[in-house]
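Trying the structure run again after the queue cleared.
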Amino acid sequence: MYCRKCGNEIPDDSVFCLKCGTKVEKPEQEIVVKNEQDDIKKDLNTSEKIEQTSQETNTPALSRKVIYGVTAAFIVIIIFIIYASLADAAKKCSLSSCDNPKAEGSEYCEDHTCGINGCTNSKSRRDKYCYEHEKELKCSVDNCDNDKIDGGEYCYMHTCEKAGCYNKKYSDTNYCIDHQIDMRERLAIDSFHFTINSAGGIEFSFRANNETKKEIKYVRFNVQLSNAVGDSVKEEITNKTYIPVEIVGPVKPDRYVTMYDEVIGYCDTCSRLDIDDITIIYTDGTEETGHFGYYCDK
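Done. Tokens:
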């Protein structure tokens, strides 16, 4: 720029001429341009400040939206997992230790639902029926887990083998007391006694006539041991209160089944022998078991 008075070149931003001291007057266009540039700078600075302020203002809002969104998604996932778990659990057997699916109409699986058709109760711990049906269907003999036979109160193992009889078997025989075979009609007793020798051995004698009209192969029975006051005593070798006896034939009809002074066991305190039941095995392969009911004292 040049001084209008003396023509000296002076800097554009000078207020007075450095040579003549005249006040410098800038052209109007230059002032307008400068003002416009200043306005643009102001606008740019203002825009930058507004944008910065907007960013500073919106950043927390955006962060909160992201956090809310993630939290909501997490809650939805948790609810879905819980619902799926509950739905899956609802389909499983109600016993905590079982993962099998429930049987139709029951809260338990087939393995743990009562075996009676239409019953949806759980089985008892030791059976295939629920507690109520177990009481109805179980053999009435204590500690027997077998089912009752149709029409009876006992299982096949404890029901009299006489056709049409539902009574309980007597002792270890195959029939009830009413249908027990009277073995005195099969073996007519002739001699039955025992002695205790010096070693405590039981010397046993037995003699009975075969009145079965069949040839006998074996006669088997247990003799029960008792002392002088009627209490059971034990055989010293087996430590049992009875001694099994077997008399070997063959014995033809109307001949004697015999055992004479044979040591069958040892018990020096034994004072009485009882025979409750006897089994006869015939040479034709058949057998019979029935009540005998004899005893003898020393």
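Helices lie at 28-91, 131-137. Worth checking whether this holds up in the mutant runs.
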